[in-house]
From TrEMBL:
UniProt domain Soluble ligand binding: residue ranges: 127-175
Domain Polysaccharide export protein N-terminal per the UniProt entry, residue ranges: 43-116
Name of this chain's protein: Sugar ABC transporter substrate-binding protein
Presence of the UniProt keyword Zinc in the record: no
Keywords: Signal
Organism classification: Bacteria, Pseudomonadati, Pseudomonadota, Gammaproteobacteria, Alteromonadales
MF (Gene Ontology): polysaccharide transmembrane transporter activity
Any Pfam family hit: SLBB
């Protein structure tokens, strides 16, 4: 095969591949599913079990079915009697009652207690901080947590942050709402009036300053 013919064929193949890739890149993914937290205000907060949590399940008078279990990424655990028990999104008390109902098939009047170690919680209950934070990350919500508590955990603002143009995104009644927050006033100027309550599932976006 002549060199010119080879180059021509190679060019045609390359253009075909690029055309295909360009066609693929024009497709867009649907937006992420909105997951609203069950916590609508500070007073209503209850800890919910999530993937990665370590559960201690104690069945009274039945040590053989008691034990410590890690919640799998699919939100389930497997016990010695029952496989694939869904646990994610339940409070420890709700899970205890659910396990009692399941075990009642095998045991007479089971009494179950559930405690949690190594708290992680469902991902939609975590607070996510992105942008010009010292250490952008997802953090576990703690009852009565405020914006100041969050900023301490993520290492404050970077030198390039526009903290007073930051926003807090929250899902309310199935809709995404956005609130202005003034982080620079809070942590650099000591303006405590800029400290606000945060809730599970909040997303804090900190933009970069333009100058």
């Amino acid at each position: 095969m002549e060199f010119k013919t080879f180059v021509k064929i190679k060019t045609i193949i390359l253009l075909t591949v690029l055309t295909f890739l360009n066609g693929c890149s024009s497709n867009t993914l649907p937006p992420a599913t909105l997951h609203q937290s069950d916590t609508v205000d500070v007073a209503s907060y209850k800890y919910l079990i999530g993937a990665g949590d370590v559960l201690n399940i104690f069945v009274w008078r039945n040590p053989e079915v008691s034990g410590t279990f890690v919640v799998r990424p699919d939100g389930m655990i497997t016990t010695s009697l029952v496989e694939d028990i869904p646990v994610s999104g339940k409070t420890p008390t709700e899970l205890a009652r659910a396990i009692e109902e399941i075990l009642s098939t095998y045991l007479r009047d089971p009494v179950v207690t559930v405690t949690v170690n190594d708290f992680v919680g469902p991902i939609n209950e975590q607070i996510r901080v992105i942008g010009e934070a010292g250490q952008p990350q997802s953090i576990n919500y703690v009852q009565n947590m405020t914006l100041l508590d969050v900023m301490i955990q993520v290492g404050g603002l970077t030198e390039f942050a526009d903290g007073n143009d930051a926003v807090l995104v929250r899902i309310e009644n199935g809709e995404q709402k956005q609130y202005n927050i003034f982080i620079e006033n809070l942590i650099k100027n000591g303006d405590i009036s800029a400290n606000v309550d945060v809730l599970p599932g909040d997303i804090i976006v900190i933009p970069e300053t333009w100058f």
